[in-house]
Amino acid sequence: MKHVLIVFTGEFKTKIYPLGGIFQYEHALVLNKNGIKTGIIAPGLLSVRRILKKYPYKKYELSKGIPIFRYFKKNLLPARIGFYNLLLAREYEKIGMKLFEKYLKKFGKPDLIHAHDIRFGIYVANAIYKKYNIPYLTTECSSETAENLFPNPLKKSTINILKKSKAVTACSKPFSKVFKKKLGLKNIKVKTIYPVLPGDISKNFTIKKKTNKNFIFITVNRLDKNKNIKLIIESFIKGFKNEKAILKIIGDGPEIGNLIKITKDSGFERKIIFIRKASRKAMKKELAISDCFLSSSLHETFGVVLIEALAFGVPVISTRAEGPSEIVNNNNGFLVKHNDQISYTNCMRKIFFKKKKFNRLKLRKNIIKRFGAEKFAESINKIYKKCLN
Prior knowledge:
The chain is an alpha/beta fold. About 40% of the residues lie in helices and about 20% in strands. The chain contains 15 helices and 14 strands. The strands form two sheets. The protein has an eight-stranded mixed sheet, with helices on both faces. A six-stranded parallel sheet has the order 11-10-9-12-13-14, sandwiched between helices. Helix 3 (about 85-105) crosses helix 4 (about 120-130), helix 8 crosses helix 13 and helix 14 (about 360-370) runs parallel beside helix 15 (about 375-389). The longest helix is centred in the first third of the chain and has 24 residues, at about 85-105.
């Protein structure tokens, strides 16, 4: 197997949304480094909030040896209305095919298509397969199936496309089971492809001795109801009124107003710090100086930021969502039942008072061994070979 094309439907690493497709990009870099020619096509339909402003992006670029083709089209059909998704899927097929044929002309025919996102990515892969007979596999990392948000009008056609996929995968074993059950994939085996730890964190560096005056709890998340940041804030308020500890919340989203109100009402404005926007460089710097990472999602398909925190030697407390329940264990943190504020606070205090100690270097070495580039390359190659045999 010499040549793989990744399909990502959405805003892929643009100036306005630099983190779009970041995990697929890391995936491509590892493949390329291991001698597999890899490219990316990114068809996208921009929502109303995007099209009302200028949206500059590169239609083609070569990034660290990875050719990336993008084309974003204006869209006025709201994806939240179920039956519109049938029309959107057809539009993605058209845009995706045009991008593929540009890629084909410049870089030749790939051996395998790897489609990310079952809502629209697999429709692009299937269209390419029907015209060019290139096999494809699929990976789902979106939590919309777990949250019962996947559009019903797409289910029948999605299942039919998945039946033709050489492999159907999701990004953690617990989520694979949920994904299979919620979508009704009775006779389709769902395997697991874990995301790779990003290269800018897995590279060798020294973990410096901490000099913080305050103990720093941190979370990096989209602030929506599923991420359930309210649990983190209430747990911190309950347990750290008189302690030298602060909570940093990096992220933005529809719940920001409610979370700020809870913070102000409790008088914790000086101890709970909201950082609504942070570059990747700034986010890494914040992780590196933190003492404990917090996650509280109701559903989390994997949780790359958890393994990033652990790679900085930072222990993790998380609710028992799908991905975190596979990442977090007794050796690197604590798992807590959903919405169990008392247990969550207790775990925070255990780490704060060093009732359970963690060796930062051991945390880093272990997570790189489990989710680093070497492990990823080994597992992805096995799956690709099975797809082509």
